[in-house]
Automatic annotation (TrEMBL):
Belongs to the NPL4 family. This is Nuclear protein localization protein 4 homolog. CDD domains: MPN_NPL4. Keywords: Metal-binding, Zinc, Zinc-finger. The keyword Metal-binding applies. It comes from Periophthalmus magnuspinnatus. SMART domains: ZnF_RBZ. Gene3D superfamilies: Cytidine Deaminase, domain 2, Zn-finger domain of Sec23/24. GO terms for biological process: ubiquitin-dependent protein catabolic process. One of its GO terms (cellular component) is nucleus. The lineage of its organism: Eukaryota, Metazoa, Chordata, Craniata, Vertebrata. Residues 119-256 form the MPN domain. InterPro entries: MPN, Npl4, NPL4_C, NPL4_Zn-bd_put, Znf_RanBP2, Znf_RanBP2_sf.
Amino acid sequence: NTGSAPLSFFLFEDEIDQFLTKQDGKIYRNRDPQLCRHGALGKCVHCVPLEVIRVIFPHFYLTRDIDVFRGKFAALENISCKIKSGCEGHSPWPEGICTKCQPSAITLNRQKYRHVDNIMFENHTIADRFLDFWRKTGSQRMGYLYGRYTEHKDIPLGIRAEVAAIYEPPQTATQNSLELLEDPKAAAVDEIASKLGLCKVGWIFTDLVSEDTRIGTVRYTRNQDSYFLSAEECITAGHFQNQQPNPCRLSREGHFGSKFVTVLATGGPDNQVHFEGYQVSNQCMALVRDECLLPCKDASELGYAKESSPEQYVPDVFYKDKDKFGNDVTFLARPLPVEYLIIDITTTFPKDPQYTFSSSQRFPIENREMLGETQDFHSLATYLSQCSSTVFLNIVSDFHLLLFLVTNEVMPLGDSIGLLLDAVKTSNEDVAQTWKKSEQWATIEQLCSTVGGQPSSSHGYGAMGGPSVPVSASSMWSCLHCTFMNQPGTEHCEMCSLPRS
C-alpha cells in the first residue's frame, strides 16, 4: 500500500527492515534420508518449509497480514489517546465531545510481537567499564547504548541490537536514585555515532545493592514476587521509545513502534550482576506520549491511568485478569500492574568477543568527575604517552576519545575529524595515518606536550563508599578478574577475593 505513508519515509526506513521485508520468514528443512520417499527436488510433510506459528516478531506478523490481504489493506495504525481535532459539530472539550472525535477505550493486552528479539553486547569490557562507576561509588548509573541493528539468525526474521559503546550523559546519582541533566553534547554524540555507522539503540541503568563486599555479591531484589520494572521506569522507557520511533512504510504516520531497548543491570538469583533486557508495548508508548499514565507513589510495581479533567480527556483504560474463582474479569486500570506493558528481551554476550573499538586502550569516560576521572588535555597527554608504541588506528579507536576530540572547549575538531571517523569505521590504518599528518593533530600533540603527561589530581574510591582518603591513582591496583580498583598494600581483591596476580 504505497499510499499509506509519504515517500520521504521510504528513504529513511532502517536497513535491517528493508532487508527483512524481502524475506519470507519460513523455516527451511533438508530432505530427511529416513522419512522422505521422494527425489531431491520433491517435498513432503517431513521436509516442506515450516510457517512460524508463534508470532513474536513484527516482520513475520506483518508478512502474514500482507499475504492474507495481498498487500491491499496492509496499514498499521498507531494508538491515539487524544481527542481528534477539527470536529465542528459541537463545542470543544470539556463542553462537548462526540463519537467521531472521542478516542476509543483501551484494553491492555500483552503484545504479541517484539520490535527487537535480542540484545548483544559486543564484549564484556563495555559492560564492565560501565559497572566500574557503581563499584567505586555505590551510586547508580545510566547510559545510552550505541550500536547497530542486525539480523538475528537464530529465529526467522529476527532483529538483534548489537551494542558497541555506552555514552554516559550528565547526571546526578545516589544509591537509590538517578536524575538526568541537560546534555549540551547530545546532538554531537549522535552525529559522531552516525558517521561511525552507529545509532542510539537503547539505554542502560543499574539497580544494584551490595550484599557482601568480600565476595562481590549483590542482592536479588527484582523477581516475580516484587517487580521487574517499576512504573516510573516503564514511563521513562516509553518516553525514550517515543523519541526514537521506528520508520515504517506501512503506517500512515510513517512510523510504528520503536526498536529502542532498555537494559537493566541488577542482581540475579545467584547474587551476581545480571543484565535484563526489556521494551514497553506500543500501548504503553501511546499512554506515555499522551500523558495518560502516572506511577503510583507507594507501590513501584503499579501504574495509574489518569482520570479526565477539564484540561484533558483521558479514555478509559482496562486490563483483564482472573478473580479468586478463576474467571476472567475486566478491571479499570486504576491502579494498573505494569506487567501488561513490558516485553521481555534476551540479553547476551558472544562466545567470541567482537570489537568495533580498540580493546586494549581506555580513554577516561565522560562525566565521571565524581571519581576524579576527567577528560582534558592532561588525561589525553597521559593516554598518548601510555600508547606511544601502539598502532595509531588502535590509539584513536576509542568512542570516548573521539567524543572528546570533537566536543572539548580548547580545540574542538568538528568537521575536520571526518577522515579519522572514516578510518575508524573502516579499520583503515592508511587513512588514519593520513589524518595523523594533518595540522589539527599536530596542534593537539603540541598542546599535550605543553600540559605534560601527568594526570589531573584524583581521589581513591573504595567499594560503595564515595571519596576516601586521597590516594595517588598510580598506587592503587586494578583486579585482573573484575576490574575493581583496590587500595595499595592488599594482595587479594576486596570485591572478588581473587589474588592480585
